[in-house]
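[audit] Reproducing an earlier prediction to check determinism. Same input, same settings, fresh worker. If the tokens differ from the archived copy the diff job will pick it up downstream; this log only records the rerun itself.
[audit] input (44 residues):
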Amino acid sequence: MKTILFILKTAGSRLDIPGKNGVTPLQHAKKSGYTAIVKILEER
């Protein structure tokens, strides 16, 4: 999962768009306890 996220981020994908439930990937990762994913999403 981290590899895919890294590829998307490197390619310039928008990772802040909420899904149809209104939750962003960062919010979901925080709620689910995915700390490694949270770190990647919070990096600029």
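[audit] rerun output stored. Observation attached for the diff report: Residues 2-10 form the longest helix (9 residues).
[audit] end
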